[in-house]
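Hey, resending since the last one bounced:
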Amino acid sequence: MAKEVRQLIRDMWQANPMWGSPRIVGELRKVGIDVAKSTVETYRMRPPKPPSLTWKTFLANHVQDLVALDFFAVPTVTYKVLFVLLIVAHHRRRVVHVAITEHPTAEWTAQQVVDAFPWDEASRYLLRDRDRIYSASFQQRVRNMGIKEVVIAPRSPWQNPYVERLIGSIRRECLDHVIVLHERHLRRLLTEYFQYYHHWRTHRALDMDCPVPRPVQRPEVGSIREVPDVGRLHHHYERRTA
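The structure tokens again:
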């Protein structure tokens, strides 16, 4: 390929960073230059490597040491709004702590972190968003536990993916199918759901295992039985002797 065409491809990439390869192929065709998409990609400008680890890499490198924290709101049949706090360990997607309140405060939230990690069992990093409830008093309490806070960027829930995905699963697989009566009812629903989630629900990210590893049952163990979970919203299957 002529040197001038190669340079034109690079110039187009640099001047139009939002264009993809097909767009450049089309633009070149309009000026009488016919090239394949693979050719454009061969000679395109290569973006510089990031100077530091990407966010995804950070999450992967510290999966053993990270817990994530977030709230979600649940309305009741009487129009009250209950707030559920989740603390999730990234390693094996395990729910470390669940708490419900009608009036969350910084002091209450800090106490939940303390309750989640008794006996000096705190994780190294706590991943959270920038909600104002995580005030100076909350930050001081967490710091005293030896936990380093990792705060995501503004309006970037994708940076806290594990807990966000769990909240979505709770809604789709449980709360979207029931009407919550009151706090005690919500607590019972979540208790049943997390029992199912930890011990029976398989996860693609865990190579189709559960947060609490679930052994494979061989045919010689017995016949397959269907067992209802979470008020028959879900079922798990296990082999049992007759």
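Residues 3-43 form one domain.

Sorry for the duplicate.
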